[in-house]
Design brief:
By secondary structure, the chain is an alpha/beta fold. It has 4 domains: 59 residues, no CATH class; 215 residues; 57 residues; 84 residues, Helix Hairpins (Orthogonal Bundle), CATH 1.10.287. It is built from 7 helices and 36 strands. A 9-stranded parallel β-sheet has the order 3-6-10-14-18-22-26-30-34. Strands 4-7-11-15-19-23-27-31-35 form a 9-stranded parallel β-sheet. Strand 1 and strand 2 form a beta hairpin. Helix 5 packs across helix 6 and helix 5 runs antiparallel to helix 7. It is elongated, with a radius of gyration of 34 Å. The chain starts with 5 loop residues before the first strand and ends with a helix. The model has no long low-confidence stretch (mean pLDDT 88). The structure holds zinc ion.
Length: 449
């Protein structure tokens, strides 16, 4: 009788003879309940023999097999390994292997799964698997040209991809991880896709590099999300993401300003909820910086638009005789473009000043720096334009004069000669009035809530 194993309902897969009274062959027969029984020992010996026989024949198709534990460490197999729908009652160890691919779709592994330092050429497919223990695919030179796919998988322990090089995606859509997800210093050429995933512990992407997108929409993370010093090339989506602890994006580099804005805003909101005001201020700064970068993008696009329409106008005026009406229309477009360009540059310059001189009201040191620079610059100006009534001739005296002018607007006016120096003193006094307001605003925001 032939083994009755079906890969899918109605799809016979196995050509082996059935074993003893079982309807299945040796590899497809499930173990008896009692692990101490003789039948259990006998079956397990037969299974080992059968497994070695298959390996000797370079047959790595283990679809649907039931085994106690497996250890393929240090093997170099040019083929793929297929354990689709298999049940492994213990650990599955593949340390230091070099294999074509690892297909475990729908499999069950009760123990741990280790691909420590493994090289898997075409990807790791763990979709819909149920893993009782931890999953490791980590440490240099662990790498794959394909993806690591855990869509719909359930993992009892931790998943670690730390230091691995993954040329495809990290795909954890709708996966459930009982422990934490460790992706420290991982390199992912495509996306990190954790849509609707549930992670009871934390996720660690410290020092990771993700060239593509980071998708955490609708994910539930029990503890914290760490992205310290990570680099993210694509967009970040955090729509409806639930994070129990903190979201750490400190020193994270974003290649897209949009991604920076979204990530920092989320992290800021979480910090505010947790009452960590200092970090919330830092994230606020990053969010505003992202907005400034975005407005630079807008500005450069409108500059390009303006150049294009100027070129077109030049061509038309120089070479093509147009009716007057069309020319008027063209001129109107040009004026519109010019208007957009001017308003966008004004906005950009304002944010630039607010960022570098005032640090968006959260960097106190920026404001102090601005004070010092303005005092020194005006002090030097007064020194080399000896026109104040008091005949100052040293930098200290002029610096002091500059200092009093800025902190007490009106002080300088009483002691100066006509009118170019008067104007410069007035400018400094105006600066001073403005800086006072900023100083008070920052002070109130930081310490008086
Ligand atoms: Zn079979």
């Amino acid at each position: 009788m032939i083994c009755k194993y079906e890969r899918l309902p109605g799809q016979r897969w196995c050509a082996e003879e059935a074993w003893g009274t079982s309807a299945y062959c040796v590899l497809h027969t499930d173990f008896p309940e009692d692990t101490a029984s003789e039948a259990f020992q006998a079956l397990s010996q037969l299974k080992t023999a059968k497994l070695n026989e298959r390996i000797a024949k370079n047959n790595y198709d283990f679809t649907g097999v039931v085994l106690r534990e497996i250890d393929f460490s240090d093997r170099k197999i040019s083929y793929g390994l297929c354990f689709e729908g298999a049940v492994i009652k213990g650990d599955a160890i593949f340390n230091d292997v070099e294999i074509g691919d690892a297909r475990f779709y729908n499999a069950q592994i009760l123990g741990n799964t280790h691909f420590y330092k493994a090289k898997v050429r075409r990807g790791i497919d763990f979709r819909n698997t149920k893993l009782g223990g931890n999953f490791l695919f980590e440490s240099i030179p662990a790498e794959t040209d394909g993806s690591v796919n855990f869509e719909g998988a359930e993992v009892g322990g931790d998943v670690s991809l730390s230091f691995a090089k993954i040329k495809g995606d990290i795909w954890f859509k709708s996966a459930v991880i009982g422990g934490s997800l460790f992706c420290t210093a991982v390199k992912v050429v495509h996306d990190a896709f954790l849509y609707n995933a549930t992670i009871k512990g934390s996720i660690f992407f410290n020092a990771a590099t993700i060239w593509g997108e980071l998708v955490l929409s609708e994910a539930k993370i029990g503890a914290s999300a760490w992205f310290e010093r990570a680099q993210i090339g694509g967009d970040v989506s955090l729509y409806m993401t639930k994070i129990g602890g903190e979201a750490n994006f400190k020193k994270t580099k974003f290649w897209q300003p949009d991604a920076q804005e979204i990530a920092c805003r989320t992290a800021k909101q979480i910090c505010e909820r947790l009452g960590d005001r200092a970090s919330a201020d830092d994230y606020y700064y990053c969010e505003m910086e992202a907005k400034r970068k975005k407005s630079l993008k807008l500005l450069s696009s409108s500059a390009r638009g303006l150049t294009r329409s100027l070129q077109a106008d030049y061509l038309h005026v120089a070479y093509i005789k147009e009716p007057w009406r069309r020319r008027k229309k063209r001129a109107r477009f040009l004026i519109e473009d010019l208007g957009t360009f001017i308003s966008r540059s004004a906005r950009y310059l304002t944010t630039l000043v607010v960022e570098y001189c005032f640090g968006y009201g959260v960097r106190f040191s920026r404001l102090v720096g601005t004070y010092i620079i303005v005092i020194v610059v005006f002090g030097l100006y007064y020194l080399y334009n000896q026109q104040t009534a008091l005949s100052f001739n040293s930098l200290e005296n002029n610096g002091l004069f500059s200092f009093f002018t800025i902190i007490a607007p009106g002080y300088g006016i009483s002691s100066i000669k006509p009118w170019i120096p008067e104007a410069s003193v007035a400018v400094e006094a105006a600066f001073g009035a403005f800086l006072w307001a900023a100083l008070i605003a920052i002070f109130v925001k930081k310490y008086m809530r």
